[in-house]
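Format notes (please read before filing issues)

Several people have asked whether sequences and structure tokens are stored in separate files. They are not. Every record keeps both together, in the order shown below: the sequence lines, then the token lines. Line labels are part of the format and must not be stripped during preprocessing.
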Amino acid sequence: MHQPAQPMINISERPHVLVAEDQEDVIAALRLLLKNNGYDVDFVRSPADALIRLRSGNFDAILLDLNYSRDTTSGTEGLELLSRVQELDNTLAVVVMTAWGSVELAVKAMHRGACDFVQKPWDNAELLKVLDQQIQRSKTMRKKLEQDQREQQEAAQVQRSLMPGEINAPNGLTIAASSQSARTVGGDYYDVIPIGEERIAICIADVVGKGLAAALLMSNLQAAVRMLAPHIDHPKELCNRVNDVISSHAVPGKFITFFYGVIDGKQMRMTYTNAGHNWPILARASGPCERLSSDDVVLGTVRGWEYHEKEVDLQTGDRLVLFTDGITEAANAGGTELGEDNLVGLVTKNIQLPAAELKDSILQSTLAHCNNVLVDDATLIVVAVQ
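Then the structure lines:
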């Protein structure tokens, strides 16, 4: 091997490198080379030990041998370790080494997430150059990731501020609601908007897709509904207007399912329009459940669509449950979804519960079913008629 090269890095903090290697002579050479050139180095001699150290420490890079005592030629152990490293941290600088290097093995390593490839015996200057380049690349990626996470968290704070806080319902009604995003920000939306002293607008929506793009479209919907609700009496007219707004700024492949109802607290009657949303459940204290369906299209797909509306009377003891498909599509480890039939059963079984307790019961059952792993945003509104 060549003599140690001159330091090729000039950064204030010493980079921390994990070396996964099982040959003592190679370990000794790498220890001398890396420590003399400004690196803090930890050594492990097996893939299992490498994973333990990665989980317990912070590293800037891993120098990873592809061949170990159990498998000295094919690189299988090293490739398996490389996949596990990517699962733990896909921003970590990974440089792989092997004495039986081949183009095929190098390509496999790169496909598994390796940043670069060095063949033994190595050139010291080249190895240091590769490490430095990949550590700087990793630092840039991590800085970008941290910035993105901060922006996502700020967006989530803004999104939460758009949701109603304490819900003041007309006399005779209590309302409880909850929304949980599968990501930091999501595409679900709900709102409860007072219209005078005895009327209240209630709505729920689901933007196709997840993440920031869905959240931005959701905020556009929220602004339009908040602006129009106090001035438009009929749900179908509001949906006509909102649909025109959304359609005029439509993004291909993006649309919104939307339910909007206006409850008259004096007459205990709700007028509603359902723009392709999951049919809300109206559990009757004195009869079977009803589903609030509609034949209207989702928002943002057909500009100029004329929406329709229906009416339903609310009676003492009824429970109205509005939800997004993040509730019903929550799946267990076997892929079985909670499903709407089970949700109807939950509501019917617990119809005597107050709004907040019924909401909590549904959410707890949903999370228990999916082992607390939501794959889609999950939003729920419960209205109790007293």
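For reference, the curators noted about this record: The domain at 16-152 is CATH 3.40.50.2300 (Rossmann fold). The chain has two domains: 16-152, 163-385.
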